[in-house]
Specification:
Elements lengths: L3 H12 L4 H10 L5 H12 L7 H12 L4 H14 L3 H8 L5 H15 L1
Helix pairs in contact: 2-3, 3-5, 4-5, 4-6, 5-7, 6-7
């Protein structure tokens, strides 16, 4: 699925010569005051291949999973699945998810990343 914001994010990343743009995206995607917007940004970030460093992606997914809002947690899992970093499987294994449907999704993504 393509979202028009993906093009804007891609342009911002290409135009940025230093790290602040990643900090902005992190802030937007973890905004508990606007969880639907945050989740949308996080899903769009997940569709950007090789975004930031592996460590940056890992920290973003971990922070997303730590959020109270289930939509943001779901978006974090979707981003992890899209990026496909094996290190993200460890982050998801350490997470204790209360929502059964999301817990099942996480288990499936962990399995896929382990292959």
């Amino acid at each position: 699925m393509f979202h028009p914001a993906e093009e804007i994010i891609g342009e911002a990343l290409r135009a940025a010569e230093d790290k602040p743009v990643l900090d902005w995206f992190r802030t937007f995607s973890l905004d508990a005051e606007q969880p639907s917007f945050a989740a949308s940004v996080l899903r769009c970030l997940g569709r950007q291949m090789s975004l930031g460093t592996g460590l940056w992606r890992t920290e973003l997914v971990k922070a997303g999973l730590d959020m109270d809002d289930v939509e943001i947690r779901d978006a974090a899992v979707q981003a992890a699945e899209s990026w496909g970093d094996r290190s993200l499987a460890d982050v998801m294994k350490a997470h204790r998810e209360a929502e059964p449907w999301l817990r099942e999704y996480i288990e499936n993504v962990i399995s896929d990343l382990g292959e």
